[in-house]
Each structure stands twice: as C-alpha cells, then as structure tokens.
Amino acid sequence: MFNRTPSKKNETLDTTFSYPEVQKDHTARIDASSPRTAMITDQVEIKGTLAFDGALEFNGTFEGEIISQGTLTIGSEAIIKAEIQAAKVIIRGKVQGNITATESVEVCDNAELFGDVQTAKFIVAEAATFRGRSDPIEGKASAPEFAPVFRRLGTSSSRSK
Q1: Calpha distance 89→67 (Å, rounded)
Q2: Domain count of the fold of the chain
Q3: Does the residue 120 lie in any domain?
Q4: How far apart are alpha carbons 111 and 67 in whole angstroms?
Q5: Nearest to 30 by CA among 84, 80, 69
C-alpha cells in the first residue's frame, strides 16, 4: 500500500497508494423500487452533474445539474445552485435554479426557492420563500374563458317610479 524510501532529512517522501479492485457484482445500487434512501451529509460539497435512481436526501452544498427519475429531498442544511430534473422534489433548504419535476415539487416551511418551476403538482408552504414562475408540466395552461352573462332586466308595469 504505502512504500517509504529511507531518506535524509529535507528529502521528499515517495508514496504510492492503490485502491482495491471492486467487482461490479458487489456494487450496491439504489433503484426506484428500493425502499431505501441514499443520503449526502452537510459536510459534502459537489460541483458537476449528479445523476441517481431511487431516493436521495441531499444536505450538502451543490453546484451544477441534478438528474433523476426518483425523489430528491433537499435537506434543511443544503445549499443548491443547480438545474434540477427529477420525478419528485422536496425542498427544505435553499435552492437557486430551475426545477422540472414530472410528479411534484414541494417547498416546505422555512425553505427558499429562487427559480422557475415546471411540474404537475406544486406545493408551497406558508412560511416558505418562492420567487420565480410556475408552469404545469404539460405546457401552458389556458385561463378559463370569462363570459359574463347579464340578465336583461325588463321594465314591468308593477315597478313604481
């Protein structure tokens, strides 16, 4: 694992480290049918693209893109700056970026969301902060037509002046 070459003071230490081989048969994978939830703690900071299946609770700091067919729960300690695509997104922390969710987006109490949302079901708690636009996932919703119907008030002979 570590190899140390005997040396004099002020010389560099020559070390090498090799990772053990991991067989794919023993690799755990969380898929959509799994009842387990993977968790990333608040001590983790990631930049890039995060892709996963199943359920993930993220409590760290993230910048980039998140893609999933599962459920993303953004914990109360999380700070996310990303474009998010998932089936379901639950926000308890801070998110800056646009979200597309095929099922739902829920912004819980004390959570903050700054960005546009496109989803089938959008829930914002009373104590949450949301600044952005929301659109239904199937496209632009059209407002119901408003055609006021007025009754014609006729003058009748029983009416007095």
Answers
A1: 11
A2: 1
A3: yes
A4: 21
A5: 69
Q: What is the DSSP letter of 24?
A: G
Question: What does the pLDDT average to over 15-34?
Answer: 44
**Amino acid at the residue 32:** A
Residue 112, in any domain of the structure: yes
Cα distances from 62 to residues 43, 49, 71, 96, 150, in angstroms, run 11, 9, 16, 10, 57
Q: What is the DSSP letter of 158?
A: T
> What percent of the chain has pLDDT above 70?
64
Per-residue pLDDT of 82-130, as tens digits, reads 999 999 999 999 999 999 999 999 999 999 999 999 999 999 999 999 9
DSSP, residue by residue, 100-141: EEEEEEEE-TT-EEES-EEEEEEEE-TT-EEES-EEETTSPP
Instruction: Please provide the average confidence, as pLDDT, over all residues in the chain.
Output: 78
Q: pTM above 0.70?
A: no
Q: Containing domain of residue 117, as a range?
A: 29-130
Taking the C-alpha atoms of residue 131 and residue 116, their distance in angstroms, rounded to an integer, is 8
The answer to whether residue 3 is domain-embedded is no
Give a yes or no: residue 38 inside a domain. yes
